[in-house]
Amino acid sequence: xxxxxxxxxxxxxxxxxxxxxxxxxxxxxxxxxxxxxxxxxxxxxxxxxxxxxxxxxxxxxxxxxxxxxxxxxxxxxxxxxxxxxxxxxxxxxxxxxxxxxxxxxxxxxxxxxxxxxxxxxxxxxxxxxxxxxxxxxxxxxxxxxxxxxxxxxxxxxxxxxxxxxxxxxxxxxxxxxxxxxxxxxxxxxxxxxxxxxxxxxxxxxxxxxxxxxxxxxxxxxxxxxxxxxxxxxxxxxxxxxxxxxxxxxxxxxxxxxxxxxxxxxxxxxxxxxxxxxxxxxxxxxxxxxxxxxxxxxxxxxxxxxxxxxxxxxxxxxxxxxxxxxxxxxxxx
Length: 332
Fold this sequence. Notes:
15 strands
């Protein structure tokens, strides 16, 4: 639409008002050529589908005029953040950390482009899901999700992190971005549900958008209410403008540091950025290309998720504020 956001063709999400007759709403939708194709019962959100050439913004306005519908939005879509590749190295050559995750360690859910089968990660994967096709094993056509899983598991440490730092913990990779590099509210909500069902305490989100979705904000708030601590990257453009999901109240926004410990020149900033963390790493897996040194707030967010999991393994009763205080004190 004109505001620059993206959405899935022909799809709308709605929530009904209390006591609304669902059968009447279904009949209304069918008369207009649509159908209910899925429901998130925890959030009370219905996914509706019309033919791909439907004028979705106009349809949303029409649905909001119906007395039984409390909220309606397009099924917003979001592009993945592209990390920046560097030709130079900033320290020793990459050496994987193969320290086993301790018994009972806290798991990080990584909602990203998936996971490529990699022996370096095999012992760290607690569970996995392809949110687009749960019947298929998880895969990763971009490499970004595999990169973030390695960071979240502690297999790869960013530059500036001591080699003997405690970083090993299990991960739950969820393929919520397709091979074109896009996700949607519906895919993310399915990923959140899977993370909660499989015992994740931390969620890593290495992407950002200027599009604010009330439904997605509700989904993250719901996950946070269940004890999930959510981390998201602040963006790789230093605009000072809010980027979501990092700017949602239930999410910890993370900016990036350069290898010298100073704020990276391309890291976004603003009141929604609560932490800055190392954002350069020598990755054994490339993003749409060769392995090498990559930089971005996506790396910083995945590493912060890893550190939160380590902290929670030692302090299982800690809430978001306690975690944030500990991290801010450790990284003034």
